[in-house]
Amino acid sequence: MAFVNAPSLLLLADAASSTVQETSETLRQASDVFDDLAGPIQVALFLGALSFTTAILVSATAFTRIVIVMSFVRRALSTQEIPPNQVMLGLSLFLTFFIMAPTFDRIHDRAIKPFLEAKATESEEEPLKFEFVKAAEIATSELKTFMLYNTRRADLQLFYELADTPPPSQREATPLKIAVPAFIISELKTAFIMGFCIYIPFMLIDLVISTILMALGMMMMPPVVVSTPCKLLLFVMVDGWQLISRALVASFA
């Protein structure tokens, strides 16, 4: 990252502090407005907010890398729609929960659990000690930590340059508007690299089968008819699903 002198660091720290304070105040005001709404309107807003869970799942967790690699595996095996999309998505989802379990546990212990305990002991005489805004900030910070650990520095630097913003002295101070897109393109690059490595052995099988068929004069016979059983046999013999799952889990920091 670019070198930042001490006065610039002080200015950046002051700007970041003021931004955090303004964001916290805005969230508190929004929380007060939400509490003042009628019950049915709160339920409607809550159900509407659930529609954003898909975007969070794709953009801030391990799901993107896993589902892309799984798609590469199915294409490399030339099995068309086997395994079905529902099976692939289900496996990708539960692998995501497995990989994200430490992050989710920290969010539960540091944000959700204290907030629920404070909410249970809340009374008119004693105000809420652990507000929803603080819980949201902790949960966001934990997700951002996971994203930064799995994001390449070059991708972060790209979005700092596009935003015309100097990088902070500490990586943890990266704003979400830069951390999220950098994390996504970093995940895409990693998934495509893993997909390329998966394709190589199966492509060699296709080349060998095609060469053998041409040598036998069976040029009218599609090579995929013969190569697909061979690729399935190889994949089963090396216990491919276990290797893919192990590689995916080990690829995350």
Cα separation of the termini: 21 Å
**DSSP E strands, number:** 0
* Contiguous helical run count: 10
**Average pLDDT value?**
75
Question: Largest sheet, if any?
Answer: none
Query: Strand share of the residues?
Result: under 5%
GO biological process, one term: protein secretion
Subcellular location: Cell membrane; Bacterial flagellum basal body
Pfam family, one: FliP
Organism: Stieleria bergensis
Structure description:
It is a single chain. The chain has helices at 6-36, 39-50, 53-60, 63-77, 85-120, 132-149, 153-162, 176-215, 223-237, 240-250. It is mainly alpha-helical. It has a domain at 24-192. The chain starts with 5 loop residues before the first helix and ends with a helix. The model is unreliable at 1-24 (pLDDT under 50). It is found in: Cell membrane; Bacterial flagellum basal body.
Give the secondary structure arrangement, pairings included.
Elements: H1 6-36, H2 39-50, H3 53-60, H4 63-77, H5 85-120, H6 132-149, H7 153-162, H8 176-215, H9 223-237, H10 240-250
Helix pairs in contact: 1-6, 4-5, 4-8, 5-6, 7-8, 8-9
Transmembrane segments: 41-67, 87-104, 191-220
Subcellular location: Cell membrane; Bacterial flagellum basal body
Function: Plays a role in the flagellum-specific transport system.
